[in-house]
Design a protein that fits this description.
Layout lengths: L2 H20 L16 E3 L3 H5 L6 E5 L3 H6 L9 E5 L5 E3 L3 H12 L8 H31 L13 H31 L6 E8 L5 E7 L17 E7 L4 E8 L3 H7 L6 H15 L4 E2 L1 H4 L4 H10 L3 H4 L15 E4 L1
Antiparallel strand pairs: 1-4, 2-3, 5-8, 5-10, 6-7, 6-9, 7-8
Bound molecules: zinc ion.
Length: 334
């Protein structure tokens, strides 16, 4: 089989599989619910619209077929223009719970220092992360068990890589993400505002990016084993017509390590570096305004596509592309 024929066949197989994956149903993540999860937004539609142009934003193409197409984990990832109604969607909660849990951040204004909104943003970032892993694990398993892989033993990712991936993803889900989700659901349900600390920065303009992420705050010289249970930092960048909110929140029990990972946030330069690092290096789901993406050079675009999710960049904290400039900001803490 020639290279072209091989590639064409790969695309055909992956498209067919993608259609199948799109039809998989997942249970609602609410602990007391067994309805089917709907496709909902990880970042509110009303906020995404403030950075869109003609209803479109740029974001990573998450379809499993696109990820499996790559020949190497170090390849640049596909950041593509997509409709706001499709961007940052995930299958986490049923329609009823999605509405109930996130009503306070979906409708009405985001109010600086509003503890209940912090709890909703934190829960959504954790649920989003969980759903992404659940989806990827399900696809990996189906892919591994399908006969499609047999068509070429050379297809990357090879079988053993998928087996490793499945093992890693299962461990992450069971060891960390299930607990995170249970804790986030509980403190949200009980309105335990005092269980969470946050740093809330307000930038006096719409900076053209939006993100919702639950990231590891582990600092350079630590390993995951150092901290059990594993801490996480929720970060939401919420654009509105006039201002952009940057809200980092965490459980009080993870105070020390989360504050270390936010070091430098008190200075404009430090905050600028941190925001760019989170948006373009730590978070896989940043939505970018076309007015930002189309303005930067092709070298910068490539840099972002390489930095998003590439493990080698994760180690290099200062490698995040400085795409977004922060003119000024105000900071509040709880
Ligand atoms: Zn439900």
């Amino acid at each position: 089989m020639g290279i072209r024929e091989y590639e064409a066949r790969k695309v055909r197989i992956l498209s067919r599989m993608q259609k199948k994956y799109d039809q998989i149903e997942f249970d609602c993540l609410h602990p007391a619910c067994n309805r089917t999860a709907i496709r909902s937004h990880g970042q509110s539609r009303q906020h995404l619209l403030t950075i869109s142009e003609a209803g479109m934003v740029y974001a990573l193409d998450h379809r499993y077929s696109r990820v499996a197409m790559r020949d190497s984990a170090e390849d640049p990832l596909p950041i593509v223009k997509q409709a706001v109604r499709k961007a940052s969607t995930f299958r986490g909660f049923c329609g009823m719970h999605d509405h109930e849990l996130f009503l306070n951040i979906e409708e009405g204004p985001i109010v600086v220092g509003n503890g209940k909104q912090v709890l909703s943003l934190l829960l959504r970032s954790v649920a989003y992360e969980y759903s992404r892993q659940r989806y990827a694990l399900t696809c990996d398993r189906l892919f591994l068990n399908s006969r499609e892989l047999a068509f070429s033993p050379n297809w990357s990712p090879a079988v053993f890589e998928i087996e490793d991936l499945i093992e890693d993803r299962s461990a992450v889900l069971e060891l960390y993400l299930e607990r995170r989700l249970a804790v986030a659901c509980r403190i949200h349900e009980q309105g335990m505002v005092s269980a969470v600390n946050y740093v809330w920065c307000t930038i006096p303009e719409n900076i053209g990016v939006s993100c919702c992420a639950a990231i590891s705050p582990l600092v350079e010289d630590s390993s995951p084993d150092t901290f059990l249970p594993e801490p996480w930092l929720s970060v939401n960048i919420v654009p509105t017509p006039d201002v952009t909110h940057f809200i980092a929140s965490w459980l009080c029990e993870f105070d020390t390590v989360c504050r270390i990972s936010l070091q430098g946030i008190e200075s404009r330069k430090g905050f600028e570096r941190l925001l760019n690092r989170i948006a373009f290096l730590d978070c896989e789901d940043t939505c970018i305004s076309p007015r930002v993406w189309d303005r930067i050079s092709s070298e910068e675009r490539l840099e972002v596509q390489l930095a998003v999710r590439a493990p080698m960049y994760r180690e290099l904290f200062d490698r995040a592309p400085l795409v977004i400039k922060i003119p000024a900001y105000r900071i509040e803490e709880a």
